Amino acid sequence: MGKIILVTGGARSGKSSFAEKLALKIGDGRAAYIATAQIFDDEMSYRVKVHKERRGKNWLTFESPFNADKSISFAAENFNAILFDCVTLYVSNFICAAELDDENFLYQNLRRLIQNLIDAAKNSDATIIFVTNEVGAGIVPENKLARRFRDLAGIANQMLAAESEKVFFTVAGIAVDVKKISESI
After folding, report:
1. CA–CA dist 3, 109 (Å, integer)
2. pTM of this prediction?
3. Among residues 15, 51, 55, 179, which one is catalytic?
4. Using CA atoms, how far apart are residues 124 and 73, in angstroms rounded to an integer?
5. In the Cβ-directed half-sphere of 127, how many Cα atoms lie within 13 Å?
6. Could you confirm whether 51 is annotated as catalytic?
7. Where are the domains of the chain?
């Protein structure tokens, strides 16, 4: 049975760097990387390039902006550790591809989408490390799309956290296991 670890935090908090080190440790020096980003401009192209350069040759990358549950299942056949980076981009891809007029559709299908990731992870023999942004710590967004994104990302994060063995929150490059703290209360 596969294990799930969630790594969350704000922008530039050190989430990905921490998760990469953790994946290599769990995977004995090699890991699979499930990339959810889609490149639409030069800035995103640069971000992807920096992530790839930082990882090096001990990684096998699966580009999966959609249907990433299939990539988890496939990667788990050859890797003990899989890094999924990132859930919030995956949610964004879903929102941008979905029919935006039907709130019920969005919420039901987002839950199904995340449950598919959880099921793929649990049905594997690997440890899947999901990286996600904590987007609910700021003010309530002023527009419908931003509120929808914040809410759906929050649902995805809660679903993954509930199934995770560990949940790390990163701040200034330091990771704290918040699930361990929460369970001790």
Report:
1. 24
2. 0.93
3. 51
4. 6
5. 20
6. yes
7. 3-183
Radius of gyration of the chain (CA): 16
pLDDT in tens, the chain (185 residues): 999 999 999 988 999 999 999 999 999 999 999 999 988 899 988 988 887 787 778 899 999 999 999 999 999 999 999 999 999 999 999 999 887 778 888 999 999 999 999 999 999 999 999 999 999 888 888 998 899 999 999 999 999 999 999 999 999 999 999 988 777 66
Which position has the token pair 């914040």?
150
Phi/psi of residue 25, each to 5°? -65, -50
> At 108, is the secondary structure helix, strand, or coil?
helix
Residues ≥6 apart with Cβ < 8 Å to 81: 22, 23, 24, 26, 27, 30, 31, 32, 126, 127, 129
Whether domain 3-183 has CATH 3.40.50.300: the reply is: yes
